[in-house]
Design goal:
The complex is a heterodimer.
Chain A lengths: L5 E7 L2 E7 L5 H9 L17 E4 L2 E4 L12 E3 L12 H8 L9 H14 L5 H7 L10 H19 L1
Parallel strand pairs in A: 1-5
Antiparallel strand pairs in A: 1-2, 3-4, 3-5
Helix pairs in contact in A: 2-5
Chain B lengths: L20 H5 L15 E7 L5 E7 L1 H4 L4 E5 L1 H7 L4 E2 L6 E2 L5 E2 L5 E7 L2 H8 L3 E6 L6 H6 L28 E9 L2 H6 L3 E9 L11 E6 L4 E5 L4 H12 L6 E4 L16 H11 L3 E4 L2 H4 L4 E2 L1 E10 L5 E11 L7 H7 L12 E9 L6 E2 L6 H18 L4 H8 L18 H11 L9 E2 L2 E13 L6 E8 L4 E5 L8 H13 L7 E3 L17 H26 L10 H9 L5 E8 L20 E13 L5 E11 L6 H20 L5 E2 L2 E2 L19 E5 L22 H13 L10 H11 L7
Helix pairs in contact in B: 11-18, 14-15, 15-16
The chains are: A alpha+beta, B alpha+beta.
Chain lengths: 162, 763
């Protein structure tokens, strides 16, 4: 096991931070062990389920495969940074109102992907939603409710920006 | 809230969002996986590489050289802290770490501990285990007669009366033979106009909750705390106390939210091992399995079901013979219960006067099998509803009309001899037929796209007799807290239970706080399984809330408040205690009536407190050039009694049906010499967005369970029942081929179509 640790600097949910990481540490490990952010979760460990989704410089990555040292100099955003204090984001509100989760283990990833989806397609149709979110899995299979949540979030966003 | 003027609560039947919704959308909800304790050691397991063998040696020398390794533990070390380290709910057959022998590929043999999980993992790879391989048996039907025996001697736990006779029995793989005889099946077959016989099989699949199994143990040597992703905290406490030779109150089991369970996280999974490791090291110990390791932990029983029916000229089923082999894998887990409980309903929701059932729980050298969303029922419905359609087709009777003619209706005896009540099979069938527009003309497709449709109905008895206990506290400001051992693994039980408290106490459900399983404070609950919680815990919660309400009324009287007055609760406390002080504690305990089935005939006047029914209708297209199947419409109907939270109920039905669609079309554990060869999401395909039918309708029939809490009963499994046979039946309806094994892949359909036109493909 290599012990050539490296000090990295990055922005985490809008705040500059510093961390010491080993070459084999993943971004999820870094977030959990050094920042107590548990919302990105390792599940399949192969980048196939989306539970570990975090945004690096605004783009979604699989935090279970993304090496922590690569975060050096980037802006990392996690589910914990989506709400503004206790004020929820419209996407979070929509997920609650549509009942778009059961156990909640995959929810962080779905919400981050939905934000990214709505940035790219402000009024997505069913096919766009299914296609865009196809890389995220939900074993409780709350998929129909997620589709409803995405559409509801799109409406909420429009209302907010209008 | 005021205690004196109970008005209709209106809380039951509200579709409120989950109580914990905000914590789930902000990523801050508590799972065991979040827990990191100071000084904690992580564990990586060394697992068996052979399906059946004697352990000749375990060489840890190289592994111990890895810098940072704290300790490597084998069964020798475990035996020093737990002299008889075998556990299980039905049989005490599973060792904490393999002792002398291994019984399946993936069985834990040694545990490597280190502060850094990467160090433990690296060292675990360097442990060398030498085995003397033994012959292995994998097939459930073969296991019944095989000379290869998985366990030399049977060790029933003593908990269940129908397993006691198996104590000490040698040289068999049979862990339970459930038999039922109703009426005179031999006579029915002798007099039958038609006899139909088919055999259906199901494959090994598994739960794969996205939160893999995880447990943490910490001990001071006198008490033990286990934080675990478990559906059965009370059982974990009992079983760990038994293993340690401690009294129950020295063991504390805490369960926060679960990232899915589906029947996997029941009984003992990692808890006994982390308990032993924490005692051996006197450090907090965490074991978090990887997704791959879930494939070596628990599966759903593969099964073989031979079903035979006697049918009269006019299409009445007069006799049925069911023989079911359950592939239990290397350890019994709850398999013998599945064999018995699902055995009750093997003939299906039909009014059949003469029935014979043989249901066999079998050991094999595969990973252990247990409960998975249906407790054996989906395997049975798959067979009997496929069989039902085959008979109807053969007799040229419309499959819905054939079911209607034979359906088991309220007031009639089920195969166990129990008279059914509030079963709703007829209501579900009729609603499904209506939603499918069954009587309207159906477009059969054209060219290479052929269309078909079908409906299937399944039913289930509850798991009885089981106990739930609850406590409702009312604080001096009137706020309420429910202490409840039901584990919320995503099914929404916290919310439903809060609604029941709120209904009784006439307060908004959102204001009720639910304290999760912590055996130091939450009372006993048998487990969160088999769709039992809404009914059993629901009653306990209702009773606890009613007790609290009665005590509040007594307090009001005591402080001189007249009945019917509108004095707030906090005022009652202030009048009595002269300040904001005191607590009202309401308790409730519930166990339903039950009559154990007679050994040998399986007959019982009261085999279950309630029945669950689920029906599925599917319309689909088959591409005759490729065998690809596309569902164009799916409807799921269930009798759940009265829905406490209609939106969550709908989500349960929908989720269950989609999950079963995975078991029907893509999911299959592949084995080679007992080794699972597709233990990852790359090779084991669970349903995703691309697999979602374009339209799905999920509805409950208008119903009231006469003995349920506010008319409610279980819902978690009902959506799974009809899916697999509806899919297979619709395929036959479309292209005339019958698939009798799951999963139904495009290749299987295409091969069957080729075979049907006498052009079979080579293997």
């Amino acid at each position: 096991m290599s012990t050539a640790n490296k000090t990295i600097h990055f922005t985490l949910n809008g705040r500059p931070v510093t961390a010491e990481v080993a070459p084999h540490h993943t971004l999820v490990e870094l977030l959990q062990n050094q920042f107590n952010l548990n919302g990105a979760r390792e599940s399949c460990a192969q980048g196939l389920c989306g539970c570990c989704t975090v945004l690096v410089d605004g783009k979604s990555v699989s935090g279970c495969l993304y090496l922590a040292s690569f975060a050096d100099g980037t802006a990392v955003d996690t589910i914990e940074g989506v709400a503004d204090g206790v004020a929820l984001d419209p996407v979070q509100e929509a997920f609650i109102e549509a009942g778009a989760f059961q156990c909640g283990f995959c929810t962080s990833g779905f919400i981050l992907m939905t934000k990214q989806l709505l940035d790219a397609h402000p009024a997505p149709d069913d096919d766009q939603i299914r296609h865009y979110l196809a890389g995220n899995l939900c074993r409780c299979a709350t998929y129909p409710e997620i589709i409803r949540a995405v559409k509801l979030a799109a409406t909420k966003r429009k209302t907010v920006t209008a | 809230m005021n205690a004196i003027t109970p008005t209709p609560g209106g809380q039951v039947g509200r579709s409120i969002p989950r109580l914990e919704a905000t914590s789930k959308v902000t990523g801050r909800v508590e799972y065991v996986h979040n827990l990191r304790l100071p000084g904690m050691l992580s564990v990586k397991l060394v697992r068996s590489t052979v399906a059946h063998g004697r352990i000749k040696s375990i060489d840890v020398e190289e592994a111990l050289k890895v810098p940072g390794v704290h300790r490597i533990v084998t069964s020798e070390d475990v035996l020093k802290v737990i002299p008889v380290p075998y556990y299980g709910p039905a049989f005490h057959d599973q060792p904490i770490l393999a002792i002398g022998k291994v019984h399946f590929v993936g069985e834990p043999v040694a545990a490597v501990l280190a502060s850094d999980p990467h160090v433990a993992e690296q060292a675990a790879r360097l442990v060398v285990v030498d085995y003397e391989e033994l012959p292995a048996v994998f097939d459930e039907v073969e296991a019944l007669k095989s000379k290869t025996v998985v366990h030399e001697q049977l060790k029933p736990a003593g908990t269940f009366p129908d397993l006691k006779h198996l104590h000490g029995v040698r040289d068999t793989n049979l862990a339970l033979d459930f038999q039922l005889v109703h009426g005179d099946p031999a006579k029915a077959f002798a007099e039958a106009d038609h006899v139909f016989e088919h055999t259906f099989r199901t494959q090994q699949v598994l739960h794969v909750p996205l939160e893999p199994y995880v447990s943490v143990a910490e001990t001071d040597g006198n008490t033990m705390t286990i934080h675990t992703a478990s559906q059965s905290p009370s059982f974990v406490r009992l079983e760990i106390a038994r293993l340690l030779g401690w009294v129950e109150n020295r063991v504390r089991v805490r369960v926060p939210f679960l990232g899915g369970g589906f029947g996997g996280k029941l009984y003992i999974k990692l808890e006994a091992l982390v308990a032993a490791l924490s005692l051996i090291t006197m450090r907090p110990v965490k074991l978090a399995l990887t997704m791959e390791e879930q494939f070596y932990t628990l599966t759903k029983h593969a099964s073989t079901f031979r079903i035979k029916s006697a049918v009269s000229k006019d299409g009445r089923v007069t006799g049925r013979e069911c023989e079911v082999w359950w592939n239990g894998g290397a350890y019994a887990d709850i398999g013998p219960r599945i064999t018995q409980k699902s055995g009750f309903t093997a003939p299906g929701p039909y009014d059949i006067e003469n029935v014979k059932i043989d249901s066999y729980a079998l050991y094999t050298n595969l990973p252990p099998a247990g409960a998975l969303r249906g407790f054996g029922i989906p395997q049975l419905v798959w067979a009997y509803e496929s069989h039902t359609d085959l008979i109807a087709r053969e007799l040229k009777i419309d499959p819905v009309a054939f079911r209607r003619k034979n359906l088991l209706r309220d007031g009639r005896e089920q195969a166990t001899g129990t008279v059914v009540r509030d079963m709703g099979a007829d209501a579900c069938l009729e609603r499904a037929a209506e939603l499918m527009n069954w009587d309207a003309p159906f477009d059969r497709g054209s060219g290479t796209i052929k269309r078909g449709r079908a409906i299937a109905v399944g039913f289930k008895a509850s798991i009885s007799p089981t106990t739930s206990v609850a406590v409702v506290n009312v604080a001096a400001d009137g706020s309420c807290t429910l202490f409840c051992g039901t584990v919320d693994m995503g099914q929404g039980s916290d919310t439903a239970m809060a609604q029941l408290v709120a209904e009784v106490l006439n307060i908004p459900a959102e204001t009720v706080r639910v304290v999760h399983s912590d055996t130091d404070v939450t009372p006993y609950d048998m487990a969160t399984l088999g769709s039992r919680s809404t009914f059993h815990m629901g009653h306990a919660v209702r009773l606890a809330a009613e007790d609290a309400r009665a005590k509040l009324a007594a307090l009001a009287t005591e402080v001189g408040v007249a009945p019917g007055s509108n004095v707030p609760i906090r005022e009652l406390f202030v009048r009595k205690y002269k300040m904001q002080a005191g607590t009202i504690v309401g308790t409730g305990s519930y166990i339903p009536d039950y009559t154990s089935p007679h050994q040998g005939t399986g007959q019982s006047a009261n085999v279950t407190p309630f029945w669950m029914v689920g029906a599925t209708g599917i319309e689909l297209e088959v591409d005759t050039e490729t065998g690809h199947v596309k569902i164009t419409k799916m409807i799921n109907v269930a009798d759940v009694g009265r829905a406490i939270n209609p939106k969550i109920v709908e989500s349960q039905l929908s989720g269950a049906a989609i999950m079963q669609l995975g078991f029907t079309t893509t999911e299959k554990m592949e084995f080679e010499g007992g080794q699972c060869t597709n233990a990852s999401f790359a090779d084991y395909k669970i349903p995703g967005f691309a697999d979602l039918p374009p339209t799905m309708t999920n509805v409950v029939v208008d119903a009231n369970q006469h003995n349920g809490p506010f008319g409610a009963k279980g819902v978690g499994e009902s959506g799974t029942f009809g899916v697999s046979p509806a899919y297979a039946n619709a395929i036959e309806d479309a292209v005339g081929v019958r698939i009798t094994t799951l999963p139904i892949t495009p290749e299987k359909v295409y091969r069957a179509m080729c075979a049907a036109r006498n052009e079979p493909l080579e293997d």
